[in-house]
Fold this sequence. Notes:
By secondary structure, this protein is an alpha/beta fold. The chain folds into 2 domains: 3-184, P-loop containing nucleotide triphosphate hydrolases (Rossmann fold); 201-435, P-loop containing nucleotide triphosphate hydrolases (Rossmann fold, 3-Layer(aba) Sandwich). Helices cover 51% and strands 17% of the residues. The protein contains 18 helices and 13 strands. It has helices at 14-24, 35-43, 51-74, 85-94, 98-107, 124-134, 143-160, 173-184, 212-221, 224-231, 241-257, 279-295, 317-323, 327-330, 342-358, 368-375, 380-383, 412-435, and strands spanning 3-8, 29-32, 78-82, 116-121, 164-168, 201-205, 236-240, 265-268, 271-274, 305-310, 333-339, 388-393, 396-404. The chain has a 6-stranded mixed beta sheet, sandwiched between helices. Strands 2-3-1-4-5 form a 5-stranded parallel beta sheet, with helices on both faces. Helix 2 packs across helix 3 (51-74), helix 3 runs parallel beside helix 5 and helix 4 (85-94) runs antiparallel to helix 5 (98-107). It starts with a strand and ends with a helix. 33% of the residues are buried.
Amino acid sequence: MRYVVIEGLPASGKSETLALLSRFYPERVKILPELVKEVAMREEINLFSERERLTKAILTALPQRREQIEEVLSQRKLCLEESHLGVHLAYARALQDRSFISAYPKIQGSLPAPDLYLRLEIPIELSLKRQRARGTLQFDVGDSTLERMLTHLQGWHIAQGNNVMTLDANRPPSVFLSEVEKILGLDYVPAQASLKETFDTLLLLGRPASGKSEFIDFMKKCPLERRAQRYHIAPFRVVDDFLILWEKFEEDNLWERLGRGRLYSRPANGNYSVIDSGIWPFLIGKINHRIEELLAKVDALSHKTLFIEFSRGGKHGYVESLKYLSLKLLSRTAILYVSVSFAESRRRNLARYDEEQKSRILTHSVPPEEMERTYGQDDWFDLAPNPQGTVEVNGTRVPYVTMKNEPESTDPNILDTRYREALDRLYTLWQENRLK
Length: 436
């Protein structure tokens, strides 16, 4: 997202939320205050008794507000604006303000369209209570007006076909603010945590149950400052092709219930086996598509590490899959291959399957016959015979490190040493490769 408008009832927390975001993300966001309130205060206009004068002042201010929005977008920052003309139109209708209602068709579309309208939702009764507490009588709005305004605003959004997300703002501040950050894709980075020496994209490869997901879980639980310094991992996003594959399995179930043939899989021991090998390059194509979507969004991958996790098997499993990855992705990628023997992979896979089955939790363990057929052979060591180096994929040299991940351990000290040593070597290779 590049441009988000925050709306909500008076005293719902719009200004306070935006002020906090501005304070903690000064390099990533730009806040634009509520235009109507800004104009009214500057021109000393009474919001309720001087509606015609207010309309004229708003019309005069629109070109400058458009320039402000466009300037923020040109800087590739996230533009966050408090309220919008649709809200003012809803108030105008609630107050029967003919001056703005008649002017609106002429100015509709005069400002860029937001990617998202984020509504901070609180009960009207709470809005009234907070309005009284803040002591700004010149801005206070009564309950009947608010009820009419909300009805008109909802109708306006529907007519416009806007992308509106409602967020419960009547919650503890820490919970509410955390969700706002998540929606906006903002991750706080302490000043002392330098992200200059962190990976852009890390391919996590390895046999099923080799420890890829456990690696990600370890990094999730590691404080950011420590993670950046010891493992070169910034705030991160994960793309796991298993989730895409499982969706295809579920689609097969739906087709089967409709009397149509399964396309990609067949049931096997409470899980699924793949019946169409074309699914593997298809999954890489879906990964490429997901990454393209992320790269198109401002700040989606800025100051972040992207994890891409998948397993492949067969005589040319990794060779074939890697060649389908986009060049844009390969140019910013390093590969960490999490290495365990096939016997160990099979053992861990069975152990995980049994444990998850007992608690009836969906597991991405692989059925035994699929393990033998698909993953019994692994071409990684044909592609990358040395413990570290580079592999050529579509003319691009991609650095890699093969990290031995057995014997299995859950000891944080053992994992720290194992992960840090491998990632230090990989980061050095990645940096050297970027300088060539």
